[in-house]
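Hello Y.,

Per our agreement to keep a running log of every chain we model this quarter, I'm adding this entry. I've kept the format consistent with earlier entries: sequence first, then predicted structure.
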Amino acid sequence: MSYTNDKIADYLTGYTRNNPAGKELIETYPDWARLAQNELDRRAAKLLEVFGAEELQAIASGQASLPDIVINLPGEQRHF
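Predicted structure for the entry above:
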């Protein structure tokens, strides 16, 4: 198992031990990948709350790219 899978397994071990209904839901829910993507989208969208309409319009139209801006911040290096 990978480190990430180990972390998930550790959490689910405790969660399912005390929550039989939760265990059944985890076993039978058909689309965990979609829900995980929705959560990633929600977290990314949370960042956008700090910007005003002008900045959001620039991002939406492609005039501003958050990844490009971050990559070009002074003293920043790519970490991926």
